Amino acid sequence: MSVSTGQLVADPAPAAPEAAAARKIEGRSPWRLALQRLAHDRASMISLAVIGIIVLVAIFAPVIAAITGHGADQQFYAPIGLTPDGQPLGPSSHFLLGTDTLGRDVLVRIAYGARISLLVGVVATVITVAIGAVIGLAAGYFGGVTDSILARLMDWLLAIPFLLFAIALVVILGPGLTVVIIVIGFFGWASVGRIVRGQVLSIKEKEYIEAARSLGAGPWRIMFVDILPNVLAPIIVYTTLLIPLTIVTEASLSFLGVGVPPPTPDWGQMISDSQTVYQYGAWWYLVFPSLALLITTLAFNIFGDGVRDAFDPRGDQLFV
Amino acid sequence: MSEPTPTTGAGSDGDVLLRVENLVKHFPVQSAQVFQRRRDVVHAVDGVNLEVRRGETLGLVGETGCGKSTLARCIMRLYDITSGQIDFDGHDISKLSRRRMRPLRREMQMIFQDPYGSLNPRRRVGSIIGDPFAIHGIASGQDRKRRVQEVMELVGLNPEHYNRFPAEFSGGQRQRIGVARALAFRPKLVVCDEPVSALDVSIQAQIINLLADLQSELGLTYIFIAHDLSVVRHVSNKVAVMYLGKIVELATVDDLWRHPRHPYTDALLSAVPVPDPDHADRRERIILVGDVPSPIAPPSGCRFHPRCPKAAPECVSTEPVLEPHLGDSADHTAACHFPVEEGEDLSKARPTIAAEQRIVETGILGGSTPGLPGSG
What we know:
Strand content of chain A: under 5%
Helix content of chain B: 25-40%
CATH topology of chain A: MetI-like fold
Strand content of chain B: 15-25%
Strand order of the largest sheet of chain B: 6-7-8-3-9-10-12-11
Largest sheet of chain B: 8 strands, mixed
Distance between the termini of chain A: 38 Å
Oligomer: heterodimer
């Protein structure tokens, strides 16, 4: 109460003695509060550390290759990298995680595969979310015909069986990293757009939007200065939860042979490859890439859950 | 802006800041039926005439849903109006595009009802109050910060709280932020849409006094919407009483309180609580029957006739015009065929129209009291 009476007096005099302290008066933004909550969540911090390690592995993949002395595409023939009858070798001091069907070092290929997974996971997700956010904003804010067209487009995209269409598209466009990113972005934005649109529909009825209009703000300023910060929380949460999904999607495409083409090392491709030799006892070729995929997606998922809890502690606003 | 060019020619006097003529705002509504789509129209504001002079405060009162806020938003051009004309400071603004309207927005501002809903929770106070500067591209960087802090001081906020978020302020302080934002450019006209009804009583007085002080300091003109009649009486020079999208009575405060001419005004005034219990007991309270009829299908003739204690057949057939009655001055107009005379006791009056033309009290909850706070 004493604070508020001090503020209610227009006379600046009472503010003077606390001037030094007042310099530090800085509102605690909702973001900072959320980040503080996140920092106190142990599971999120552990998964963040795991994500950090994976990122380091991806960045320093050439270093790992140098230490082992095996290139990512370097093949070792029998008897060094393959058994005399051409089967992969199990884990040994020479090949820590064994070799694959062509006598390549699984460890080095997993390290390089992390690059593809993270790259596609992050880039495709960011593209997806950016498109979805802008279209969702436009649909929700402008309403009317714009909304009808965009909302039907989203419905249409969500109704398409993704995998079948993705395979068809890759066949037409030819496989490659860029194509995979485009395909994932093209099919992914609709769900983001829907979430953003719903949020915008409720936010645009708020009085502060009316206040902005009464001040003379145009539609773009209202969309990006007034509305966007209010839908950023669900967007961020959705982004962190979408990354592991995208990584799995990329792995699935590669598993089906329509993802990143060989010889680029890729986890999905390795898992697919391992099927041919698993029955002959080469468990390491299946288990280690799968573990890499599992740990990565799990870490992102747990982290995403933490982000959601941090941004939405009551658990009632973002998602229904 | 500097030189107002009169648009209405004759009868426009330089003292009039805002003139509203025959303002109509209809909202189309679609009843959601699968096979038949009916288009109904809500007659939110139906032919309103108003004049606001420079430096005065026009109070706007009426029950929830009578079109007060819609009228305010039409004047602010937040809504496109259906028909009619709005002259602001010599400019006809009724059909200006958003772009053409922009420079004029510096001169007319709005203070909103809800101090929680009207401030963006994700933005800092400095940036909210700096919004008018940012939108109109005036002052930037340190200069803008200085001017924002000046305004904050003007409305009694600590300028050091520039970087705080709205959530860190109390309701009264938040309303001061809203006032600061509206006054950043020293506008000519400020439309206050129930600026105190969301605050508790002690804070209401602070904000009202602040608004009054700022008015004399900056020479502001207010349109003050409220449903609390004692607040309106305190701040206004003139009062317009609205019922179902129309102004039913328009008078100076003293005139209106001394001899209300419209039965609705009389009923409203009789509902104002009196601090003296003895006096309150002696007073006859006029209890109106029923609720405000639907603005989708307003009653014929005088819109008040289904609830009016004095309703006569003429009220059903012809619509009364807003004009002076019973020797009132030209400033005191009422739309009523049978204006209330001094000393007349409305609580004893009985309507002379057929029962089916009236709202009949149903059950125990049928009667409603005008002037009770609603959501507006």
